[in-house]
C-alpha cells in the first residue's frame, strides 16, 4: 500500500474506532525508512572539541572498524541501510540494519531518563532513552552515553561527545516522508546545543542482517 | 513549538547538503575523489562483508617488486541490494580495479569499478543512483559509479 492509501486506511480505522486523530498521525511514523537527505550541522566548538577533531584519524579511530556503532546520530544518519520503526503500546521499537542495532525505547511519562534501560541492550555506550509524544511528533531523550564521536562521516566527521552529552530526537511523519531532527547538548565540546536533521523516504525494503565482522584486512599495519 | 520544529526540519531537508556519497566512515574524507586511477593485479582475496568489503590484489610494480593493495568496497548488504554481480569476482583472476586512493595510506584505495579478464566491467551504482531509482520507481542502472 502506498503512503496515501496507508494513511487513509489508518485515518479511517481511527475514525471508526473512535481513536483520536493524533494516534492515526502517529501511526504514520511506522514503516521502513531510507535516507533522502541530511542537513549540515552548525555547531560552535569548544577548544577541547577542536583538539579532538584535529586528532581524529578515520581509518584508525572509527568505532565501526571494531563493529561498534559510534552513536545514535551516526546510526540514524548513515545513508545506505534502511531501518524500521514500530509503535507498541508501551514502547517504540527501532530496528536498524546498520550494526544490527535493535533499539527499545519505553514510552513512560513517569520514567526518569537516567533510570531508563539502555536504548540498545548490547550497546550500553549508546545510552539510556525514554520517549514521549508531543502532538503527532515522537520525541526521545537519551543520556548516559559513552565518550566517543557524534559522527564519523560527512560534515560532522570526528565531532566528539562526552558522557554528559544529551540527545533529543524529534520524529515527524508526513505521508511517505519522515523528518528527524536530533538536538545535541554537550557543554564539554559545544558552546551551545546544535541540531542535525534528516529526511527519509518510506520504502519497501527488507532490513537485512548486518552481521558485522571486524575487518580481517584492517589498516593497522599501514597506519 | 511543534510548528517551529517543522520549519527547522524543512530547512534541513530542502536547503542543505546531502550525504549520498558517504559510507560508514567517510569515503570522500578518506579517499581522494579527484585522483582516480587503475591498478592491475591478481586478486588474492575477496572479503564480502559488513561494514566494509575488501579486495586484496598483488600488483607488480615497474621495478618488478610486488605490492599488496587493499581496496575497500561497499558493504555486503549494499552490494547485494544494488544487484552487483558478485559471483563473477573470482580469487586468482587478474583484475583491473579503477579506484580512488587513500589520502593517508599507501597502496590503499576505494573501488569504483572492476574490469574482469573477459573485459566486462562490474560497478556498484552507489547509494545515490539506488535512491533515485527507488524514488522514480524504475530499475537501477548506472554508467558511472557515484561513490
Q: What share of the residues of chain B lie within helices?
A: 10-25%
Estimated structural class of chain A: alpha+beta
Order of helices and strands of chain A: HHEHHHEEEEEEEEEE
Structural class given helices, strands, pairing of chain B? Answer: alpha+beta
Q: Name the pair of protein chains with the most residues at their interface, and give those residue counts.
A: A-B, 54 and 47 residues
Number of strands of chain B: 6
**Biggest sheet statistics of chain A:** 9 strands, antiparallel
Oligomer: heterodimer
Characterization of the model:
The complex is a heterodimer of chains A (223) and B (147). Chain A is an alpha+beta fold and 223 residues long. Chain A has a single domain (31-222), classed as Lipocalin. Chain A contains five helices and eleven strands. In chain A, the strands form two sheets. Chain A has a nine-stranded antiparallel beta sheet with strand order 4-3-2-1-11-10-9-6-5. In chain A, strand 9 and strand 10 form a beta hairpin. The longest helix of chain A is centred in the first third of the chain and has 15 residues, at 3-17. The radius of gyration of chain A is 18 Å and the shape is globular. The termini of chain A are far apart. By secondary structure, chain B is of the alpha+beta class. Chain B has one domain (20-136): OB fold (Dihydrolipoamide Acetyltransferase, E2P) (Beta Barrel), CATH 2.40.50. Chain B has a five-stranded mixed β-barrel with strand order 1-2-3-5-4. In chain B, strand 4 (94-101) and strand 5 (108-115) form a beta hairpin. The longest helix of chain B is centred in the first third of the chain and has 14 residues, at 2-15. The termini of chain B are far apart. Residues 1-22 of chain B have low confidence and may be disordered. Chains A and B meet through strand 1, strand 10 and strand 11 of A and helix 1, helix 3 and helix 4 of B.
